[in-house]
Design a protein that fits this description.
Layout: E1 15-19, E2 32-41, E3 55-59, E4 73-75, E5 86-91, E6 108-115, H1 117-124, E7 133-137, E8 146-147, E9 153-158, E10 161-170, E11 181-185, H2 190-195, E12 204-205, E13 248-249, E14 263-264, E15 273-278, E16 281-290, E17 293-297, H3 298-301, E18 311-315, E19 328-337, E20 345-350, E21 364-365, E22 378-383, E23 401-408, E24 418-422, E25 434-439, E26 442-448, E27 461-465, H4 471-478, E28 483-484, E29 496-497, E30 510-514
Parallel strand pairs: 4-10, 4-12, 13-28, 21-26
Antiparallel strand pairs: 1-2, 1-30, 2-3, 5-6, 5-9, 6-7, 7-11, 8-29, 9-10, 10-11, 14-23, 15-16, 15-18, 16-17, 17-20, 18-19, 19-20, 22-23, 22-25, 23-24, 24-27, 25-26
């Protein structure tokens, strides 16, 4: 059993399951690995709200139980988890926001208390927490699940038996005060789980707990907090916005790029980056500019009447052809292409709004040409070079990388329509990728990479058409776009467990490995 958001599809070919594992690095003498025969996602799973965030994996062969590999009991449908019920969460996720588990990446545990759904909903944003979820955390902060813990268990002890009550699902950041983590409630899924397991069914146990049921009388104090409908799976993030309610653009909470940095980047560095696939093959890069629109180069579409059914857009990727925990994909319902001389852009309208998270954020667009990036300004181009055909990493696929450059003089060319930089080693796979420059605390896309054009200044300078040149088309097609952050408006949160380990105990643990 795992979380549905961990899987971008029900394709089993890239998945491997390791049991009895303690460290992600090095040898594990008690480990057994197997492949997956079938992935069953809950039919009512909603990737926007994270409701019904549960999945079942049928293993290719039976597992032999040992002292290190045993089944956990599951909470039965009539179980009660009162406010304050002691709980434990285990996983290999980040030890705090933006800090990965150190070598040898030993399984971690954290002790948390159940928080009533009503209070949890008030804290996380009214309407965020449903009856299909259960919350746990420490209101003072400091303990939580975090990015990388997704799909792992929350368990509670009843007598000598451990009962799984939750599945790590999502949260706003990690271990922040008054923002408890949210888990899929296992007990609500008893009928669904049993319907997919014909023999050797799991052991369901009625869990009972005494104490105050905070849901029976709790009401939100004062005006309810406002949140976006973007939820971050404990491998993703959610954004809380109090004022304004409009989404913030150009916010990259996991970006630590400094002057002189270039090369392969960690996941989440450029959270607006998307990869565009035509008939399942990587074709171009692009950027998320609003919850339903992606920007790329018109050359990527290469036809006046593109077939939208051929296109799919992938978000939250680090590897262009790998399956990753933050990854999601959507189809396209409309493609609009600009009609100007030289460089042109294409706008892809998505089948549904995107849920913003730490790894999935919109970039800012200067449609009114009010921002200036003077000569000498540091900027970056992010892209996948030649797609899956090059730039091999330690995982399958091509790793996202960036190139640093500086704004240069455009000579006699119009500064209002063009921006120039010193030459970079751009490749065909960079087509449609962004030229990114920072203004105040927000990242702006000032141009789209196009691999051909008639303009030139001199051999060491590259010319790009400013995105502000297409301001009218952007306003007409996209409408309202996210605004740059003005004050402290809150950012997307990661989903993982900030596990502050006191000691490691042998627990029933399953590690899912995507990629072969």
């Amino acid at each position: 059993m795992s979380a549905a958001h961990c899987f971008s599809s029900d394709t089993t070919s890239r998945w491997q399951v390791s049991l009895g594992r303690q460290n992600l690095q090095g040898n594990n003498s008690n480990e057994v690995s197997t492949t997956v025969a079938r992935i069953i996602l809950h039919p009512n799973y909603d990737s926007v709200t994270n409701n019904n965030d549960i999945a079942l994996l049928r293993l290719s062969s039976p597992v032999n139980f040992t002292d290190y590999i045993r089944p956990v009991c599951l909470a039965a449908s009539d179980s009660v988890f009162s406010n304050g019920t002691d709980s434990w969460v285990t996983g290999w996720g980040a030890v705090k926001e933006g800090v990965s588990l150190p070598f040898p990446e030993t399984l971690q545990e954290v002790e948390l208390s159940v928080l009533g759904n009503s209070q949890c909903d008030c804290l996380n944003g009214v309407g965020t927490v449903t009856d299909n979820m259960i919350c746990a955390g420490v209101l003072a902060g400091g303990k939580d699940s975090c990015q990388g813990d997704s799909g792992g268990p929350m368990v509670n002890q009843q007598g000598s038996v451990w009962v799984q009550s939750g599945i790590v699902s999502f949260g706003f950041g990690c271990a922040r005060p008054n923002l408890p983590g949210v888990y899929s409630r296992v007990s609500i899924c008893q009928s669904w789980i049993n319907s997919h397991i014909s023999s050797d069914k799991p052991g369901f146990v009625q869990f009972t707990s005494s104490g105050l049921d905070a849901d029976s009388s709790y009401t939100c104090p004062g005006p309810p907090p406002s949140t976006t409908t973007s939820s971050t799976t404990r491998p993703s993030t959610t954004q809380i916005l109090t004022s304004p309610a409009r989404a913030v653009c150009g916010n990259a909470p996991m970006n630590s790029r400094a002057l002189g940095d270039s090369g392969v980047v960690p996941g989440g560095t450029w959270p607006w980056m998307v990869s565009l696939h035509k008939n399942g093959v990587y074709t171009c890069g692009g950027t998320l500019i609003a919850e339903r629109f992606v920007l790329t180069s018109a050359q990527c579409v290469s036809t006046s009447n593109p077939d939208v059914s051929e296109w799919s857009v992938f978000f939250g990727q680090h590897l262009v052809d790998g399956s990753e925990e933050f990854e999601m994909s959507l189809g396209v319902v409309n493609i609009t292409v600009s009609n100007m001389t030289d460089s042109n852009i294409a706008l892809l309208q998505l089948t549904k709004p995107v849920s913003f998270k730490d790894h999935i954020q919109p970039v800012c667009m200067d449609v009114s040409a009010s921002r200036t990036f003077p000569v000498g300004s540091r900027c970056w181009v992010a892209g996948w070079e030649n797609g899956s055909k090059s730039f091999s990493t330690d995982k399958a696929g091509s790793g996202l990388r960036d190139l640093e450059t500086q704004v240069a003089s455009c000579g006699d060319l119009s500064d209002s329509e063009n921006i120039c930089t010193y030459t970079m080693d751009l490749q065909q796979g960079d087509q449609g990728s962004p030229l990114l420059c920072k203004s105040d605390s927000s990242w702006f896309q000032v141009a789209v990479v196009t691999m051909s054009g008639s303009k030139s200044v001199r051999a060491d300078v590259q010319v790009f058409a400013k995105t502000s040149r297409f301001g009218s088309l952007l306003k007409e097609t996209v409408g309202d776009m996210p605004s740059p952050e003005v004050a402290a408006t809150g950012n997307a949160a990661g989903f993982s467990i900030s596990l502050f380990l006191y000691f490691v105990v042998p627990v029933t643990s399953v590690f899912l490995l995507s990629g072969s």
